Amino acid sequence: MFILAVFISYLLGAISFSYVIGKQFKKLDIRDHGSGNAGATNTLRVMGVLPAIAVLILDCAKGVVAVFLGWYLTGGDPIAGAASGLASIIGHNWPVYYGFRGGKGVATTIGVLASLVFTLAVTTGIIAIISIVITRFVSLGSLIFVVGTTLSTAIFYQQLDYPFVYVYFLIMISLLSIWRHRTNVKRLLNGTESKIGEKITAN
User: Fold this and answer.
1) Element (DSSP H or E) covering residue 81
2) Distance between terminal CA atoms of the chain?
3) Which residues, including other chains, have CB under 8 Å from residue 28's CB and lie 6 or more apart?
4) Looking at per-residue confidence, does 44 or 3 come out higher?
């Protein structure tokens, strides 16, 4: 059941809601517009607020469902829950349905971390949101959230009674997120990163 949970979670994560919404309502492939990323931030730039909110919620939900599916199919095995969550992020990033061209997995990662380590994810999420409001860099806030949640889990897992195995999976998720954001990191360092609110129109 462990393998089944991980496999289903990958297939679930591979559903690209930014692609689906773009095709259904705007007749466009989100990956050919704006930054080319299949995610909520690019959806905001290309299609506007309401589609972006829908993508954000649905992509988060993929991560939540994947974690709970892993737990459900294995009788609450923490490794299965974490592995299924990771699989959903991988599915979002490299979706089998769309030629393995996906997004960066931020919203799905939010759903996964909120399911695994809710208290720490919320606390770090608030800090990440504040950083986005101040700097208007979504990529910076995303990295603060993922890396910050990982570090705080490594520090406080005992006090909050989280399985230590979550730390290993969060490290993998952090490394994956950093890798997917590597061009953003370069632009942040060069001062050329796009800020939220800078709309890129579809062409």
Assistant:
1) helix 78-93
2) 45
3) 22, 46, 202
4) 3
